[in-house]
Write a structure and sequence with these properties.
- By secondary structure, the chain is an alpha+beta fold.
- It has a domain at about 1-90: Thiolase/Chalcone synthase (Peroxisomal Thiolase, Chain A, domain 1).
- The chain is built from four helices and four strands; from the N terminus they run ααββββαα.
- It has helices at about 15-20, 35-50, 135-160, 175-185, and strands spanning about 55-65, 80-90, 120, 135.
- The strands form two sheets. It has a two-stranded antiparallel ribbon.
- Helix 3 (about 135-160) packs across helix 4 (about 175-185).
Length: about 190
């Protein structure tokens, strides 16, 4: 379960979902990686399957950012919201061609030196409050464009495919300016982005 807005500090929201689904076996845990949480969760699920630790993994991403927004801050409250999605990853036999291999590559990045650019100003161990989301918009924009571009270039190098071989690219990023900037910097044709 990828979430930065869990139901409780503990137990994990994933454990509540596991119980409601009637599942008694297997691991259930939350992963907190904010905007990239779902990408981290899919990558973790893929690693579990490739490593033989799981045959099938339910991955869920869900956020209730409306509960941590400062509704008087128009620079953030219009950009963040609530949403959820889920998928099941499962090992399967294929020919090994790039069109049947599932997750071809994963390139996760983080840089803690930028933590003051997008954060929540509360927490049970720091302030004892939930806090509100805070952001330095221009700095987040510059950092996001650079990081997305680097990841795209590295991913294509890793799988040895040209950019032209991809019909659609669906980034986790919802900000159209960041998507446009990343497309331009990576050489990817903009109209192919979703």
């Amino acid at each position: 379960m990828a979430t930065s807005t869990p139901d409780n500090t503990f137990p994990a929201t994933a454990v509540n979902i596991q119980n409601r689904l009637g599942m008694k076996h297997g691991a259930a845990f939350d992963m907190q990686a904010v905007c990239t949480g779902f990408v981290y969760a899919v990558t973790t699920a893929d690693a579990y399957i490739r490593g033989g630790l799981a045959r099938r993994v339910l991955v869920i991403g869900a956020e209730t950012f409306s509960r941590i927004l400062d509704w008087n801050d128009r620079t953030t409250c219009v950009l963040f919201g609530d949403g959820a999605g889920a998928l099941v990853l499962e090992a399967g036999e294929g020919e090994g061609a790039s069109n049947d291999r599932g997750v071809l590559t994963a390139h996760l990045r983080s840089d803690g030196s930028h933590k003051d650019k997008l954060y929540v100003d509360g927490g049970p161990s720091s302030t004892g409050t939930v806090g509100h989301l805070r952001m330095e918009g221009r700095e987040v924009f510059k950092h996001a464009v650079g990081m997305i571009t680097d990841v795209i270039v590295d991913a294509f190098k890793a799988v040895q495919l040209p950019l032209e071989s991809i019909d659609w690219l669906v980034p986790h990023q919802a900000n159209v300016r960041i998507i446009e900037g990343s497309a331009k910097n990576s050489g990817f044709r903009w109209k192919k982005w979703s």
